[in-house]
Amino acid sequence: MTEQAPARRGFFSKNIGPVERMLWALAGLALMAVGFEVFNALTETGIGLVFVFIGFLVFLQAPMAWSLWNAIAGRSTFERDAEFEQG
Fold first, then answer.
1. Domain ranges of the chain
2. For residue 13, what are the CA distances in angstroms to 1, 17, 18, 35?
3. Are 31 and 58 in contact (CB under 8 A)?
4. Confidence label for 80 from pLDDT (cuts 50, 70 and 90)
5. Over the stretch 50-61, which tens digit does the pLDDT of each residue have?
């Protein structure tokens, strides 16, 4: 029996598993909350808006199941988490 090499992943392939997706979503929401509540993003200086913007970008990674940082590092938790859930 010959063992096949794993298929090469594309740069924009899903690379975030369900557990990590939840963590990214919570981190994004937390950053947006800090921007709005602590730095009062709507009335004060731009630092609150920076927190909201970065939080929004972090939050967007969850529904897309793709992270730039994981893609650059060549790592993925997508398959590993899926295998864990199945058995």
1. 25-82
2. 29, 12, 15, 31
3. yes
4. low
5. 999 999 999 999
